[in-house]
Predict the structure of Major facilitator superfamily (MFS) profile domain-containing protein.
Amino acid sequence: MIERQATEGRPFRATLLGAFVTSVGLGLTLPFTFVYLNGVLGLPLPVAGFAVAAAAVLALGATAAGGVLADRIGLGRVAVLGLVGQAAGTLVLASAGEPVMGVTGLAVLSMGNSLVWPSLNGLVTYQVPSQRRSRAFALRFGVMNAGLGIGSLIAAATVSTSRPSSFHLVYALDGATTAVFALILLFGIRSTAGWASHQHRADAAVPTTYRSVLRDRSFVAYLAVLLALAIFGSSQAEGPWAAFVALIPGGSGQVIGLAFAANTAAIIVLQLPMERWTRRLRRSRLLVLCALAGAVAWVLTGTASLPGLPAAASGTMLVLSLGVFGLGETLLSPVINAMPNAMAPDRLRGRYNALNSATYPVSKFIGPPLAGVLLGGGAPGLWVGVVTLGMLLTAGGAVLLGRQLTTAVEHP
């Protein structure tokens, strides 16, 4: 049984430490992908957009392959392999002097990253007892956001398009922190449960394929809800939201920056208290509350765009909207990785986590293009209505999901 192998000692602490270290490095570079490709490497913006989309396609394929590989050779080994690939891609980006090398580094980085997080999510199942996994995932999410915030602050003070060397420096540091994470895992969790593959003699005759996973109707329904949350939630917050704000009188670069700072602060401050306060709630109810928080955030955004509203009031609402969205993210983090691992049998754990992680890149193919059509159609307020309605429908889907989940999955 997993519970007999689980421990909250060295393996989980090593994973948590590594996640913090690499998130600081990621925070140094995360906001600057397009700026680096265009402003430093000279790639035209449309081509840069295509390169990022192509990297996402490669990442999606690598995610599927990584799920199979994790079930065959072990979650820990695949996580280290992915970190090595991610570090190599980032260091190629850091040393790039022309577009082809930069795009190659981006592709390698994306594929490596797509191997890392599904494997790490599965590893937590072996490192933490089932009744504490929701808190473990929430703690890791909070720690990572703290690291991202630190990295972003450092980048804001050091990076400048007038100094291309500053970009090379932060990408080199990002690659170095990823390599450190690989070493932490290699020495911190090697030979522990989940590092290598497990033999499942009783299930030897049971197929271990993605088709077997997709026969789990509850898991497929969960994936549908999670994908909808990403399409109408995170994929809108990470780009389209700022584009909408730029179109309204109260919007400015300063307001956008403050809003994203409020989002990060809400996650850092509220993550662990929220996990504790909601611990007795069913997991499907947390999905409902997350969707409703997203709907409230988009309503606040739409209200901030009303004509005649003072600039100060509009700016305050915009900052508050992403703070509320961050609150919704704290409700999602105890569920998004714990629920699929509660459903997954050991022999398919890698594939379950791979499909769970695949919802994010898939949402990138749907959410931003949808927003582009709505925002560019001459009536940007329509974007607010569509994404708000999407979040409300997602909340209804989460209610229906809760009716088919078992008690073991719903309650940690």
About this structure: The CA atoms of residues 249 and 308 lie 9 Å apart.
